[in-house]
TrEMBL record:
Organism, scientific name: Alistipes shahii WAL 8301
Source superkingdom: Bacteria
The protein, known as: Beta-galactosidase
Boundaries of every Beta-galactosidase 1-like first all-beta domain copy: 47-154
Keyword Ligase applies: no
């Protein structure tokens, strides 16, 4: 039997590498635990006006969808917005793609825009207008949307070890998800494969690992060896648009690219 195992290790090394290890999420924590000070405004306000220089902000408003669908138009999107209607993901907007058709039953609905500031402009004419978040006009079917609730999301300032988690159920809107894993026997570098996810942040054992975005070429993050334990490692993931409760991440022994 030992000879067979040794032969398999030589012929099929991938089966025994970190890349074969799947990390399942089993718990979730709502974003309400990391809400900052809520601001009410008739119009959209840039992040700086609500005290946020970097990170995430949630913009919410009550809207009326006239006849089953209507075009949502935003004047400025800096830099990325995940659009939800009544907790159902609709799509994404950027400053190069500022219109999205919303489909819903006619009537009143809650519009939720989860926005991330990806970074600051450091060159070119736009350096004089470095506002982030959403600002300017917001229209639905040509009509101005007013009455906004604007909430800073203190994602990057949060210690994930202090969040209160519960058993993972349907995640219709962005939340924190947590899983546990034991480290498989492995020598060399270990990468976290984030392919299949959207845009967000990840921590392991309370250490901030980094951010990810499905539009980037590289879809993995190097895990420092010193933060991993042999057993009971905790992974916490925040994602703006991947709400599949069955979504998993994986460990890889090499970087992962699209």
């Amino acid at each position: 039997m030992n000879k067979i195992c040794l032969l398999l290790c030589c012929l099929l090394p991938g089966l025994f590498r970190a890349g074969a290890q799947e990390l399942k999420m089993t718990e979730c924590a709502p974003l309400t635990q990391i809400y900052g000070e809520v601001c009410e405004s008739d119009e959209l306000l840039p992040m700086g006006d609500v005290g946020v220089e970097f990170g995430y902000v949630l913009y919410q408003a009550a809207i009326t969808v006239p006849a089953g669908e209507a075009a949502l138009e935003l004047e400025n999107v800096r830099d990325y917005a995940a659009v939800y209607l009544d907790g159902v993901f609709q799509g994404t907007l950027t400053d190069n793609r500022k219109t999205l058709t919303l489909k819903a039953e006619p009537g009143r609905h809650t519009l939720q825009l989860y926005v991330e500031n990806i970074g600051r402009i450091t060159y070119g004419p736009e350096i004089l207008d470095n506002s982030k978040g959403l600002f300017g006009e917001a229209r639905l079917g040509g009509e101005t949307i007013a009455g906004w609730t604007i909430t800073p999301l203190e994602v990057r300032d949060t210690d994930p070890e202090t969040l209160e988690f519960e058993a993972l159920g349907p995640c219709n809107t962005p939340c924190f998800r947590r899983g546990q894993f034991d480290r498989a026997a492995h020598e060399g570098a270990v990468y976290l494969d984030v392919s299949g996810w959207g845009m967000g942040e990840v921590w392991i054992n309370g250490h901030y690992l980094g951010s990810f975005w499905d539009e980037e070429k590289q879809q993995s993050i190097l895990i420092p060896a010193e933060i991993l334990a042999e057993k009971g490692n905790r992974i916490v993931v925040f994602d703006l648009k991947n709400n599949d409760p069955g979504a998993t991440m994986r460990l890889s022994d090499k970087p992962v690219f699209k």
